[in-house]
Design goal:
The complex is a heterodimer. Chain A is an alpha+beta fold. Helix content of chain A is about 30%, strand content about 15%. The radius of gyration of chain A is 25 Å and the shape is globular. Chain B has 17 helices and six strands. The two termini of chain B are about 20 Å apart. Classes of the chains: A alpha+beta, B mainly alpha.
Chain lengths: ~600, ~425
Amino acid sequence: MKKVSVLLALMLALTAVAAAPAAATAVIPTELPRNETLYFAGQQWGTVLSWNIFGSNQNNSLVIGGAAASREIYFETLYMWNDLDGQLYPLLADGQPEWNAEGTAVTIKINPAAHFNNGEPVTANDVAAVWNAHVKYQTGTGINGSTYISEVTAIDDATVEFKAALNDKGKPVNPLEVPNQLCQLRITSAAWIEALDAKANGDADTFKNDPAYDIVASGPYAGGYYTDETKIVLARDDSYWGVALWGKLPAPKYLAHILYADNAAGRAALEAGEVDVSQQFNSDVEKMWLEKGLPISTYIDEPPYQLGLVQPSAIYNYNIPVLNELAVRKAIAIAVDYDQINANAMTHQSATFDQIPRSLFNTTEGQQAVYDHDAVKDLQWAGKDIEGAKKLLDEAGIVDSDGDGWREYNGEKISLNAVCPNGWSDWQASMEVVAATGKEIGIEITTFYPEAGEFYAVFQNPDQTQYAIYMQSIGGSGPTYPWNSVRAAMSGEFIGQQNNGSGNWGQYVNPRIDEIITAIPQTTDEAELKALYTEAVQIYLTDIPSFQLMYRPSLFHTVNESVWTNYPEEGDEHGYPPNDCTDGYGIGALYDLELVNP
Amino acid sequence: MKNILRQILHARNFMIGFVTIVIILFAVSIYPLFNQGSPLDMIGLGTFFKPGTYISMYDAVETAPTYTLRLDDAAAKRVEAKLPQADRESMKKWLVAYGIPDEAINTDDLNDLLNLWNNTYDPDARPSGLTSAFRKSVARIDAALTGLLESLDVRVYTQEPSTGEMRETAQIKDNQYINVSEVINTRKLWLGTDNFGRDAFKELLAATGVSLKIGLIAGVIATALGLLLGLVSGFVGGIVDDIIMFFANLFTVIPGFVLLILISYSIGQEQRGATVVAAVIGCTSWVWTTRSVRAQTLSLRNRDHVNLSRLSGHSLPRILITDILPYIASYVVMALILQICSGILAEAQLSMLGLGPKTTETPTLGLMMFWGMTYAAHQNGAWWAYFPVILMIALVSFSLNLMNTGLDQVFNPQLRS
């Protein structure tokens, strides 16, 4: 009998190991206790491929995701970005970064309490090793970052220095990019990097493609993980160093994400209370509480429900001759029915352009204050101005001369397409509204929805003529913003650049805007800065190289309070941004969560 | 011929199907005369407006004459609509959490409850144990309570554009009514609106027309191709038969719908008008017609009258048309009906996958389903955006199938009664 029970115990243990093939340390139960688990939706689609922070195709966005507000649950950064106040909050760092007198280097103290999930302390040497590996193996971070940062060195165990790359005047190429790295550079241990380095033996592909199942991390949920084709689970590290910082451990013991097939499945799970935090675009989200009476809410209780941080825009392709005509660009822009896009495509989850007039900037007070609203007032348009658009086209001589109902340009019927990726419902619906506008002003616009991969491959080619009007987001939140919004919309540096994922996809040329883009990061005088930003908006609204269709959150933040409560909401005393409790300073929300029925 | 027609007209199944299709066609062609404008006009700002009559509030205020109706239950109805029992329970839950003793709250006495509420409720308070969603729902209830019991007159003011002065233009009592037929602007939205704010009923009828057209084009192409290839293959035989059957077998093995998806995808959305989609459907669904026609031709080719025709030196087309076709005509008509039906279904399936015709050009039943699904109509309870579409597809294909069964009863000697 005893033998049988030993055998049974052994078998049970083996089953547990088999069920958690990828667990780093903790054994994760196959049945997660509901009141110890926070469930997500919309953060992760498809099976995780890799945990390697140096890789490029990890498909692990629940862990390696976010932008300036970096996902802090597994890997941590030196600082946390707060979308609401635009400030850096120390995480692995201790205190604020300090610039030297010349403004060419910044010193950061490492929090002495910080340690990795293997118990080793986080030191300045780890930070330097991460940076050096990015540069050595030419990862995206390494390539982009080394333009602005020349060197990262450990002065001692607790002090690391980031030296800015200097221009010919001895000034930093772009001082905004340094803090940008401080809140985006995920830290792992120098020893782990060294081991992988030895294994790769200088081969970048081996280094970057290693799945890194054993990677060392310092975050609160680096206590172990489980992944398969149905879900991803992260276990809390109960010896997490951050207790020293936050005063306690985050409330949920597990973070879990079921891999839903599509939006509809994720939405159904949210409504059923199987999902606590949803990062999905749920159309008509208010009906969940107003009509169905579900305990679901968004960050803001009224439209636009979410915090608008990016501006999905329609980009004009200047490679198409007719789109070099200002009259055509302007006619389409002023004729589009933005109220329709807001009401029907975004289901009111965007601020209107009456509330936040179009500029290049997001809806936060900080970004709205950088330019002079009155100076660009006359350049704004309300939309749905069909007669005005027709008049513009007529005056420019772009008329329908053969009577078929469509206008011609150089003797040929103008026929444009409006493109965005397939399956992005609110973008697709916006493109439908743009296409419907074309019909009213005599310009044929047809919609086209390629798969996302194909879409990006085509429009990142600077010579493409396949897409005439296509959607892409401009703007965001982070230390480089709002400067980066101006750059992404119009910068000449992207002209002719292959695989350009960063900006000016339409190939707009204007030497003056390039001067402004160069000047802004070097300018500290506030009045001067405001004048530069105002001029940039004036140029943008005059030349119309693209036009905003809506404001959109960078993360949708919708929560179901069936199990957990005390999530961030607008105006609460915590001031955590609505970042799904995972990104940047928003991770603080995890520490305040409480059970509805303890 | 006359006899056959009489038999067809007496086939009950056929007539039910036929009359239904005629009614649908009639509605499709007549309705646009009463409700002008494009079915794709986005009239509603917002998604999925409920079915019903929409009355212009702007015009309602100025509608004259007004009538006084003294209805006893009007005030009670108003209170019940604004503050249903469930909301009173929510108020009680909040008050209890705030510290008011349970027995001090009487949800049945509205005056009492409102008094207690108005004296206690603090929108900024965060009583423990209440979720944020609940607190927000209570705040919405609170907002609806103003003037609930007083039945105050509603006063309407207009602002003078030049002076900015406010001038009272109307004063509305709680027993004042207007006749809906006297309001200048009303709009009956039988099936509400879809996600784009389009009149869903108007769109449904227009889409049915387009889908029938797609079905007809696809059906005609598929049947014509199938008939031609089947006749030639069966009658000529030899190498021609081998070649045609080789392709027919090839197409039989590859699932037709997969082929349809691949072709539609490679054509690209820009080229996909309704006609192109119909043609693609037609070109991928000729196989079974070919095989059946071939089999029937094979059984006919050695009949005496065919041999006689051959001996008389008649040309191949003439033999096929005058000696073979009449024998299989009834089958071909029935195949055509089924092909029309499957063409409509194929369009709906393709569009559901986002591979249908372009949205802004024409409405189709499949596209209506696609957008309804994309904007979660089924999860929002907006049944009007998808259920009538399903019903219409079912009705059309059921009617066509009934017609087919009816014809079968007439033409199939084994079924003939």
